[in-house]
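Sanity check

After download, print the first record. It should look like this:
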Amino acid sequence: MLRRSFLLWAGASGATAAAGVAGFLRWQEITPNINMPGRDEGHFLRDRKALPPPSQTLETDVLILGSGIAGLTAAWKMAKEGKRDFLMLDGPQPYGNAAGGSFGDLAFPTGAHYLPLPTQECFHVREILADLGVIQRDAMSQKPYYDERAVLHAPEERLLFNGQWQEGLVPHEGVPAQELEEHKRFFAEVEQLRQVRGSDGKRVFAFPTANSSDDAAWLKLDAISFKQWIEQKGYRSPSLHWYLNYCCRDDYGARYDKVSAWAGLHYFCGRGGEAANAGQGAWLTWPGGLQTLASGLERRSGAQRLNGTAVSLKRVDKGVEALCFALEGGKPRSFLVRARKAICAMPLYVAARVVENIASYGFNPAQHIPVYAPWMVANFLLKRFPEEKGQAPLSWDNVVYGEPGLGYVVSTHQDIRVRPPEKTVFSSYVALSDRTPSGARRWMLSASPQELLALASADLKAAYGANFASCVERVDITLRGHAMASPSPGFRSDAGLRALRELDGPILFAHSDLSGFSVFEEASWWGYRAAGLVLS
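Expected structure tokens:
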């Protein structure tokens, strides 16, 4: 890809060709730092390598396996209710998909980077935000008051469409009137569906999804793909189809022809939170993404964390026993943890290998494990802002029309200054939805750093041309081979997920995988529920 780009640029003329060659050479000088969280531990589990005998045995009342949002929420809720006798095993990466990083003082996300305003139904998220000081008053009212520093500032988002930046992510400038009418009709239909309730009195689409209606008439949406539903409704607009496909790739890591129609509509209908000091549907964000919330939950919980990953979890006479290991200098050290209860806050593809006889809980890994979407997040440390062209200014979220890229987020966007900072970080997101998940994972493992950089920078090159490379000081690329569960058609009726959701006993399950897709509202809900079962 880099060689092809060089040949194209070399064919240009004058200053453009010189800039292209200089940009190409600049990329050749940059060797990105490649991070693959959990790869070594995951392959160790997959290959069932022999462990040395346990070097110690620890005892606690509750063991939390995993330090992502679900595990952290469980720890926070237990501590808030006065329970402190618990230990947390980090797993392969502290904070999981909510992790972030930094270049000196400049924080950046390596996973999730924003949170929509929660609705009143999403009371557990409001409780968290109030405890962390993000909601400053009236937490359970229709319109709470939020910390201004967390509410997304304008300009919020823009789209590079037909070579020009435009405000917003739905293509409109240069789009035929007939297509614009379809846009209008779709969003009007979504607004109606937002309020619809099933025969059980529940909203059809709600957060957390555990509060959504189980009306069989509406669950028929889960039997088809989102693309099929769109086509059945007579939507033909290419620009609308691109946007709806983008939304599925952005939230679910999969194309709209691979995502359940129920999930596709839930993306639009399940949210809609309000604030006293922000518009409806506003977002919350921080320079380091959701690591700000993760670290806040950890701080408030006072969790005692252990470095390591579980190899096995089984029931014993007095509760549960977990065999764990930590890689130290590439060599494993093992230890045992015994507890009255365990909260299994890990992805289900991992839990299937760790929990002894998981099929006895009603979960058959061969049938019930979700499809997992791979992701790439690249953080570019810039020594200066690239030159902008066009009417729409640099925004927090900047998207390029196309695929597989999802655009880039500006980490310093929330800074309130008279002048922009000298340096910044652009975080580029790529959902490898243009290939099969297994094919994407194989490519991740075999691709060279320069190949990874070429894909990670594709949207930035489209936005700024070859000269963007001269602004770059450093690049960190994070690869997540099993980043998130994707809600394929049929996920709402998955009997294995339902069995784990309803489980109450020595082993409790708490992860966004139980909902079938990966977002903060769902992960925190299952951690919140697990803590409640422990405390009851």
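If your output differs, re-run the checksum step. Summary of this record's structure: The radius of gyration is 23 Å.
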